[in-house]
Amino acid sequence: MKLNIFKKRFTVLCCSILTMTAMSCKDDFLDEDLTNQYSTDYFLTPQGLEDLTVSLYGNIRWHFGYEWAYGLTLYGTDEFTNANDLTNEMWNTYDNRLGPVGATTETGAANKNATSPANLWDQMYYGISSANIIIANAEIIEDETVRNRCLAHAYFLRGYNYYRLVAQYGGVVLQLEPAEGVVRNFERSTEEESWEQVISDFRNAYEHFEGEIYTYGKGVTWTKATAAHFLSKALLFRASERNDAWNSGYIESDLNEAIDAASYAIDARGPLTNNYRDLYATWSGIDSETEQLDEILMAASHNADESTKGRFGNRTYNYFTPQFSNFSGGWVRRGVWIGGMDFQRLRPTEYTYAVFDHVNDSRMWKTFKTVYGVNNVLDENVDVELGDPGIVMILNTKEDDTYNNFKFGANIQQPDWRDVDGRLPEWEVGMRQTETSGSLTSNPGQFVPNSLVLYQNGEYVSPDFKSTPISNFFAGINKTDDGSRFAEKGDAHRDVTMARLAETYLVRAECYARLQQYGNAMNDLNTVRARAAWKAGENRSYYVDGSVAFENNSLNTGSAAQNYINSNLNINTYYLSNPDIDVTTDASDLSLTSFPDNLPDEDEAVLNAIGVSGTYERALHFILNERTRELLGEWQRWETLSRTGTLIQRARAFNKEATNITANKHELRPIPQSFIDGLLNEDGSNLSAEMKAEWQNPGY
Question: Global pTM?
Fold first, then answer.
């Protein structure tokens, strides 16, 4: 760690905001010039503090600029495991490479891109340093409205950054004032003290925000509802199982305050967006309507201005997509016309597919990409044309026996197999892309170069279609797909959603459940599930994702334009995956009629698998299941499981690669050794080995 991050000298501050921007209150911060050319004195003026306030938005972009986006937040949980790429494998397997020093190629990392425990620690304190300057000097701003606005933003970012730190590391260093000179002597606060500070900052932010005033441009600005959402999350975290050793005196009051804060956000920003697809899948380009929805409470903003993207930009389009160009054998070539790069980092677990109601829950079919079109014909002797299905992933259930005798796999082309294998089943499922069905093909039994099924003969066989050592053939999710990129590996331009109102409902539902107010909890859950159900008239096999932004891309000409059309067929495998369902546009119903008794079959199966029985435990695990269905891939699963004391239980049950996860150790991350090694005693002497050990979390 760079130990001078707490310097008050503003030259250091300027370095920490190289990727940030500043502007007057009336404009969007992404539209303005960088502020790193300002003199140090400028940041001690009213306008300088306001510009520094706006620059705080740049700090949150870091979270989505590189491999740490998923390594810290999604790996090692029940939802995702690693595929054939092993860049951050240790964060999923919890092996000895996940330690205070961090993994390098010399210590067994697959490459130089492995995430270090120091990454989050360092970056959060940069933002905290800037927030401290604003808070300490806000009195020089005479305009009360502007002063309160600056304080609201500074308290919010400091609270958010400490939230991220405490959620990952437990008790941390609480630096609340701009430090004088280079500081190398700190005290580590307890987890209780740390949560008190997080909650205090969010309370202050909540009090200082001016309601739902979009000060810096809608889709970007934090508001009172943003602070309310995170205040409710922080209070719930303090009241949760990870803090059982000391939190008994807080639980009831924290849960009630969390309910009040969540209720403000819900009342101020509701209702939910009508169609789940519109939250992510219909993203059509920079600053599109998808980014302006009232449901979005916080997002890391991006646009096409290269000067504002920072060191890393937005790389999230890389991480959820299977290695389609590899296992397809070239039938589906990758390119900017497909919204995701096939880095195959995040492979859904069996639990992730199975936790959905495959028939009635539209979120599954609006999220998983199950069909890729042929954009390159490899064998003219095969009855496959450009624009035919080239990769088909059938997401059936364990009980389905339709495909027991079919041969599936990647690039099945052998002549002696073609008559019986690699083909779609012999029934008519509707014409491709019709208004009522949008189904795969009008040619039953058509050969498909690459096909996958989840279950055969009651066994989960999806990982068997693989490239060694681990499967790279899976149905990925589409929440980050971006067809606006100007190069295949270019920066994404879409915002990354960090908080939205559906989660606020789930937070409030969990608070109600913890207070044994199960009826209130069920009402909030049903609000979320009502949006998830199919609406009357919906085409259940229609699919779209952010690849559609390519239509507005300057690269959308010539062969690239044709590749876009051939690759993106706007269809899914709903009817192939549910072979007993006739084509329908009827509404579905996901409403709970009792809670937490008599849960849906898919939830009862999960609860049985992990041995859950008590009333509260059933309620909690149902809510965790619902968080998967609603928030899959939205950058917070690890902290949620750590918070609720369910990380070890659920990772062991549902993530076969998390082989080394250890209780009383892996619920927290290691404190970076580089930070500990740089500490000094007050007299300037080095810490002893025993003192250093006291700084470290248990087990590391």
Answer: 0.93
